[in-house]
Amino acid sequence: MIWDPAFYQKFPGYAGILPIWSNAHWPQLNDYNKMAHNFACPISFIAQSQKCRYEKVIYESRLVPTRLNHWHDFFNNLTWLQWPKIKWAMIQRYYEEGLSASRTPLQNILAHFDECGVIICSENLEVFEHIQQMQWKTLFWHKRNLLAHCQCIIIGHGLLDKARAPYIGMTGKTIFLPYIPASLKIIDEVIAQTILSTSLALMPFPLLGWPVWHADNQYEEFYDNTDYFRAKR
Q: What predicted TM-score, i.e. pTM, was given to this entire model?
């Protein structure tokens, strides 16, 4: 895989991790571990072996298995560095559910959020109502002004990987935060507690509807694509 040090300049949705890493080469294990030390992140990174069970290794040793020179694992590691409490909360709940051959319903939800997680922060509950009702054109177009007072933060490392080449169909899984936190650190703490203390219900979120996250979403007809902006069943 080819390293691109300017990856974060090509999609505005990278703001949540921008720019933890900026260099002319692929980060190696010592780079990740130096960053973890500098950010006081309570985990370390090791090379992935074929036999390791990802969640078990992390929970029992606080070591994150990593494939080097690999975009998906690069974004996974960045999310560990930026959102250590959220990531640990997901690992803890996943591990506590047991490590059988098949996932439990909760483990499926956690896996979806780890890969495709999006946090929507707003003081206006109307935003969340439109998302829950899947009223996408209303939210993104007719009431677009509501989004000026919102934050949309991607934390799913799978979505961050896909965002290197955004495509119609990219969909996040959202958790709502009913206020605008003062810092990303507060988001990390609050969402981690949410994951640990409550049942989780994730709503789909067509990511490219967010203003300026796609060149065509400045036009009303963009939101007429009901294959992407689907109505509630």
A: 0.95
